[in-house]
Amino acid sequence: MADGAADIHAQLNAAALAYCDAVYFAKADVFEELCHEKFQMTHVENDAATFWDKAAYLDRVRGRDPFPAPAVYEILDMDQAGDEIARVHLTVDVPPLRYEDHLGFVRVNGSWKLLTKVFRTMEKL
Model confidence at 3, in pLDDT bands (50, 70, 90)? Predict the structure, then answer.
């Protein structure tokens, strides 16, 4: 992996880990910084989709308590197209459920911003 690609991979990995910790520990301030202003979240379940924008998602995060440590998540896959867009596939536990997330990132002014989140419930824990 070229140095530039390795740097981007490390930046995306750090963004994905920050995302997982913020989900698990209900850190709205992290999402405020991490999410693009046009952030859109989509939950797919039973052949239906439910949508939230950034403000609605931050309200959801602020409305719940953090879970006890340690956070449970796994980054399954990560890829990028140039140094402008990237995708991260991961699982994260939000007891009593485990979710599968596909995160879409864009690079804005040198920082990776979460633009889209499409997710589903994988299983009950």
Answer: low
Is the peptide bond between 68 and the residue preceding it cis, with omega within 30 degrees of 0?
no
The CA–CA distances, whole Å, from 78 to 13, 73, 98 equal: 8, 14, 19
Closest of 68, 57, 6 to residue 30, by C-alpha: 57
Taking only the tens place, the pLDDT of each residue in 50-66 is: 999 999 999 999 999 99
SS3 state at 110:
coil
Task: Say how far apart CA 36 and CA 120 lie, in whole Å.
Answer: 21
Higher pLDDT, 19 or 9: 19
Distance CA 5, CA 13 (A): 12
Structure tokens of 65? 């308590």
**Cα atoms found within 13 Å of the Cα of residue 46, Cβ hemisphere only:** 1
